[in-house]
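Memo to structure team: turn this sequence into structure tokens by end of day. - J.P.
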Amino acid sequence: MKRENLLIGSKVIFLPQCSSTNDLAKESAQMGEPHGTIYRCNSQTAGRGKDGKTWYSIPNKGIYFSVILRPEKNFPLCWLPHISGISVCESVIELFNLF
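Reply from structure team:
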């Protein structure tokens, strides 16, 4: 599938290091960056997790990224973490032929 046809990942912005992929995605979303844009880096100097908790990003030891999502009006956001986790698992299984 061509990258430009993807709903998520049609645009990937990579930085070796950034303060926070969440901050980059938020600022860019406010400036009109489209749904599905991914911000990825090898390490973050001020990463945040759920509820603003500190997120330690050991350089080159994890997958640090944020995605701009613009869900439809009635999309149940409570399902988003579950859908995201399943999607990542399925992608890793397919990518590495695990089953």
